[in-house]
């Protein structure tokens, strides 16, 4: 019983931290891009689009990972998170080059520098919930 409680608390903490990172990252990154692009609504719209598409991609990744053995999918996911985290530091430079469309530049920047990290973060919760359900099918999550 004590081990089950510890497992449940550990999963809850990881899920909370993961959700916190995902939902804090979006406004933080968007606010970093605002001064470069003049504070227009385009920045918020493109950032929202990017994060919503990354969310769906993360869910698709978690769904596809269910077909692998549990240990393999969790190991691959942890490796993906580590690689994404190491590649994370976002550099914006001086903004878009002259003549470039700011929304396309913003989208390219977000996909290129944050796509892997955000997709991996959004895949964590469904994958961990699947692993928890497989590890203890009799427990009510």
Mind explaining what this structure looks like?
This protein has about 140 residues and is mainly α. The protein has one domain (about 1-135). About 75% of the residues lie in helices and about 0% in strands. Helix 1 packs antiparallel against helix 4 (about 100-135).
What labels would you give this structure?
141 residues; elongated; 77% helix; mainly alpha
β-strand percent reads under 5%
E-strand count: 0
Radius of gyration: 18 Å
Model regions low in confidence, pLDDT < 50 over at least 5 residues: none
Total domains: 1
Shape, principal axes of CA atoms: elongated
State the helical fraction: over 70%
Distance between the termini: 14 Å
Which structural class best describes the helix and strand composition? Answer: mainly alpha
How many DSSP helices?
4
Q: Order of helices and strands, N to C?
A: HHHH
Average pLDDT rating: 85
Biggest pleated-sheet summary: none
Q: Could you give a short description of this structure?
A:
With 141 residues, the protein is mainly α. It is built from 4 helices and no strands.
What is this structure's SSE topology?
Layout: H1 2-33, H2 41-65, H3 70-86, H4 102-135
């Amino acid at each position: 019983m004590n081990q089950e409680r510890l497992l449940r608390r550990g999963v809850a903490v990881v899920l909370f931290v993961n959700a916190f990172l995902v939902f804090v990252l979006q406004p933080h990154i968007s606010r970093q891009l605002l001064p470069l692009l003049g504070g227009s609504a385009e920045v918020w719209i493109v950032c929202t689009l990017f994060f919503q598409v990354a969310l769906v991609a993360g869910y698709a990744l978690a769904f596809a990972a269910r077909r692998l053995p549990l240990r393999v999918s969790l190991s691959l996911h942890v490796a993906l998170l580590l690689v994404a985290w190491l590649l994370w530091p976002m550099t914006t430079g001086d903004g878009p080059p002259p003549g470039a469309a700011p929304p396309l530049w913003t989208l390219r920047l977000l996909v290129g520098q944050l796509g892997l990290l955000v997709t991996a973060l959004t895949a964590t919760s469904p994958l961990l919930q699947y692993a928890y359900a497989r590890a203890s099918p009799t427990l009510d999550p």
